Amino acid sequence: MAKCEICEKTLNYGNKLSITRSHISKRTSRTWKPNLRTVKTIVNGQPKKIKVCAKCLRSGKVKKA
Question: For residues 34-56, b (16+ Cβ closer than 10 Å) or e, as one string?
Fold first, then answer.
């Protein structure tokens, strides 16, 4: 399952709206997946590959090996 190992970000569920003639006519379900990257980091002094979302990488929550 798609999940960030730092912030626990997972799938989000919602509706995709079909807008026709200025009103919503149909709704179908869809999912939003997190933007995950596999990064080699240092965990407990050991290098390890973990899946991290792009937001955690940008904010500096992960130290790369």
Answer: bebeebebeeeeeeeeeebbeeb
**Which residues have CB under 8 Å from 39's CB, separation 6+?**
49, 50, 51, 52, 57, 62, 64
pLDDT in tens, the chain (65 residues): 789 999 999 999 999 887 777 777 788 899 999 999 999 999 888 999 999 999 999 999 998 88
Q: Model-level pTM greater than 0.90?
A: no
